[in-house]
């Protein structure tokens, strides 16, 4: 059974789709595609059915990532099917923990930058939505930096599952 990771931000048009595409590439490069399923969602439904923000698409495309995306809202009913739910900031972390129905579900929620040893105390990936191109590029840098540590953690989980 595949290991399932879902990235969650506010509207699922900026940070979480960016994290989804970056991490999916890391999974593919590691030869784990098929073993790890990656997707994303938002805590709110304002953008359900929309594509990613054009600035997200532009930054992803210019850095060699895929960018196909349709926004959706995270549902608490998804928890049983997910192994890891990755919040992009503390606000998302709180909202997701409120949606968790059991301690086991709450234990699956982590902040993305907690996987970046260089992140220090500030673990939020700031929302680039109200900024310009530079904020989207900074978001990508933070996501890329944390993705290596996240990949190592997922790889360890997969190894623990192997009999």
From TrEMBL:
**Could you tell me which InterPro entries the record lists for this protein?**
LMW_PTPase, Ptyr_pPase, Ptyr_pPase_sf, Tyr_phospatase_low_mol_wt
Provide the Phosphotyrosine protein phosphatase I domain boundaries: 3-153
A Pfam family in this protein? LMWPc
Q: What is its EC number?
A: 3.1.3.48
Q: What class of enzyme is it?
A: hydrolase
Instruction: Keywords in alphabetical order, please.
Output: Hydrolase, Protein phosphatase
Q: Could you tell me the superkingdom of the organism this chain comes from?
A: Bacteria
The entry assigns this protein to a family as follows:
Belongs to the low molecular weight phosphotyrosine protein phosphatase family.
Per its record, how is this protein called by name?
A: protein-tyrosine-phosphatase
């Amino acid at each position: 059974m595949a290991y399932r990771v879902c990235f969650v931000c506010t509207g699922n048009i900026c940070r979480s789709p960016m994290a989804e595409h970056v991490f999916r590439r890391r999974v593919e490069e590691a030869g784990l595609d098929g073993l790890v399923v990656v997707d994303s969602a938002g805590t709110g439904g304002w953008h359900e059915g929309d594509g990613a923000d054009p600035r997200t698409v532009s930054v992803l495309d210019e850095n060699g990532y895929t960018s196909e995306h349709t926004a959706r809202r995270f549902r608490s009913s998804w928890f049983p099917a997910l192994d890891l739910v990755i919040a992009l900031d503390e606000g998302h972390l709180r909202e997701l923990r409120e949606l968790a129905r059991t301690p086991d579900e709450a234990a699956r929620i982590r902040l993305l930058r907690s996987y970046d040893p260089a992140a220090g105390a500030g673990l939020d990936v700031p929302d680039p939505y109200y900024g310009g191109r530079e904020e989207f590029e900074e978001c990508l840098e933070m996501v890329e930096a944390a993705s290596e540590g996240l990949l190592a953690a997922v790889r360890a989980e997969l190894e623990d599952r192997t009999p």
